[in-house]
Hints:
Elements: H1 5-16, H2 25-42, E1 45-49, E2 58-62, E3 71-76, H3 85-88, E4 92-94, E5 97-99, H4 103-122, E6 131-136, H5 147-154, E7 160-162, E8 172-176, E9 178-187, E10 191-192, H6 203-215, E11 225-233, E12 239-240, E13 243-252, H7 255-270, E14 278-287, H8 294-309, E15 316-319, H9 325-330, E16 335-337, E17 343-344, E18 352-354, H10 358-374
Parallel strand pairs: 3-6, 3-7, 7-16, 8-15
Antiparallel strand pairs: 1-2, 2-6, 4-5, 5-18, 9-13, 9-14, 10-12, 11-13, 17-18
Helix pairs in contact: 1-4, 2-4
Amino acid sequence: MLLNVEEYLDNLKELVNTESHSKMPEGTRQVAMILKEKFDQLGWHTELIDIGTKVGPCLKVTNKPSDHYDVLLLGHMDTVFPAGTVAERPFKIVGEHYTGPGASDMKCGLLYMYYLAKYRTAANLKEEGSICLLFNPDEEIGSADSRQLIEQEAKKAANVLIMESARANGALVNKRKGISSYVITFNGIAAHAGVDPDKGASAINEFIRWGQEIITLANKEKGTTVNIGIVNGGTGANIIADKAVCEVDVRITEVTEAMRIDQRIRELQQHPFDARVKVDVDGGYKRPPFNPSEKSLALCHMADEIAAELGIDLAWTATGGGSDGNFTAALGIPTIDGLGPIGGNAHSEREYGEISSLTPRFELLYKIVGKLTQNSTL
């Protein structure tokens, strides 16, 4: 399957240069509309699904009406880059790479989903099997608003393919850590640090004591990491701080670890070191771990066999980053991730995708979907 690379890159330029930060509903909506128009022209069934006012809509595309899918493909339309980033560094071809905000994570994968539909339609395969393509607007901020729809559609599917880019070394992903995240706000009592220190209750001092406890919750043997990534507080060195805020990121491979850490944070909230400081805890367990089941490993094996036929030396990896595959895998649905083109340096100005990977990785995707629509039972 020879992908029209020049046409693909022209279409990718349009998507990348359409800014779509997670908290820009108008941006993700515009991406959805661009894609919807393309699928409409192919005669596929499209539906914009509003999931709230904070984010843009989801786009659901199917080859035909069905209550069951042989395969569900998932991709997110949002990026981590704020408005104005495209003006600073728009889509660009640099040697053998394509670059731009969200080019690799993951607008290139969205476009693979469109070309899958386009090429299957051209080959008179539109009606073969049952395929659902689902695009969501909020993956980069946890998919809180789209999770219900993702899980609803995934429960109808025999298999799920996540269209994130393959790793920089070409590996696909079959294991991801689960995620918990917290915003913890400490509300103390302000006072003059030199004149009336005893009248104050320092929010910062309370945070420091919490911080010492929180970092000990990591467990290297179980793959549990805990990071206090953002800290804000205080208004002056001579003022007892009445407020401090920290944000905590937790990654786990076992659900029990998320529960253990959450229990300890709630215990600290109920019993602060300084009883005068009131603590608000927002957040908790967000994404379940994506651990490969026997059926997922069978799907990996099928991909290996197809890759070998195409002359692709496929490798698999685990990653600490989460994706919407965490949700589908936790439901027990065979799931593999990283079926987009090869790319790297996501979430940075150095983000790139490999042009040379576009055709072979698309052929791999095309044949995997072809196999699953002929026989979805592994």
